[in-house]
Amino acid sequence: MVDLGRRPDTRRNVEILFGEPERQLRSNIRLALRNEKFENVLDVENVGQVRQLLMTRAPDLVIIDAETKGGSVAELIHDVRYGNIGNNPFIPFIVTMWRPTEMLVQGVANSGTDDLLVKPISPQQLVDRIKVLTDNRKPFVVTSDYIGPDRRKDSSRGSDIPLIEVPNTLSAKISGERIDPTKLTALVNRAQNTINDQRLKRNAFQICFLVGLILPALAENRLDDPELEDNLRKVLTISRDTAERMMGTEYEHVSNLCNNMIDVVERLLDNLMSPSTKDVSLLKPVSDAILLGFHPTSDAATMAGEINTALSAYDRRQKKRD
């Protein structure tokens, strides 16, 4: 573990982007960070500026207020995590906020941030959180709609979602390591490939899960149920995402199946009040084939059991809400 107190000299190597809409508070915290030997702090006034800076540089840490103007902070972090901005999707993020409403907290948490601090905050709180990110940053997890640090409160609970260790330049620099750009790029690419592989598998599982919700609605003729259309559109979105991610991977051969699913779902959406029997009958075999395509060594019955377990859990949650 890295002792921030014993290695203050190495803090000078850490590059921090600091976004805070209130000028005086921004100045105060920036000064406090510099007093803690974090001297390479670049403060920014809006989300757009952060986006521009991330296109040309890779800071070791971003600290930003959730209500910074010029765009959505949650969308910013989401775009970083999905590789849409910059060259390092694993930059640590600490998000601060004055008004922790349920909607704001949920949006930020779902974006893939590492930490969230409710204001007012002290400089020591910030240093303590930086220490956590240095010594004990959470590994990343991938689901069909999330890429980011593991958010589970009880990480000891069993889960089939693997934990992925990602590059952490913040920890490396405070440890006194020299960052080799070529080596860092290789580490980032390796972690991205692992995440992409997991995303494909989670997408395939989610497609089967959604089809498991869609078929009963179609069988019961609940054609005007908004959830039916919503689930079909989710299948369409996930199938498109999967097809794009398969290029250049070992699963590229499954692309035809995803394209078939896209075609079937588009036809169903175009004729939702009178769905084709043939298209309805194709949903399950195509989704099953996609799932098995990403799990070639798995038993079909085992995979079906996992889907049924997820559907049963979903049904129980829905009944509790009702």
List keywords for this structure.
11 helices, disordered N terminus, Rossmann fold, Four Helix Bundle (Hemerythrin (Met), subunit A), two-stranded antiparallel ribbon, 322 residues
Shape: elongated
Question: DSSP strand (E) fraction?
Answer: 5-15%
Helix content: 40-55%
Largest sheet: 5 strands, parallel
- Fold-level CATH name of the largest domain: Rossmann fold
Poorly predicted regions: 1-6
Task: Report, as a whole number of angstroms, the end-to-end distance.
Answer: 48 Å
- What is the average per-residue confidence, as pLDDT, rounded to a whole number? 88
SS-derived structural category: alpha/beta
Q: Spatial order of the strands in the main sheet?
A: 2-1-3-4-5
H/E order of the elements?
Answer: EHEHEHEHEHEEHHHHHH
Please tell me the CATH architecture of the largest domain by its name: 3-Layer(aba) Sandwich
The count of domains is 2
According to DSSP, the number of beta strands is 7
Write the layout of secondary structure elements.
Layout: E1 15-19, H1 23-35, E2 40-44, H2 47-56, E3 61-65, H3 73-81, E4 93-97, H4 102-111, E5 115-118, H5 123-135, E6 140-142, E7 147-149, H6 169-174, H7 181-219, H8 226-245, H9 255-270, H10 277-294, H11 300-321
Parallel strand pairs: 1-2, 1-3, 3-4, 4-5
Antiparallel strand pairs: 6-7
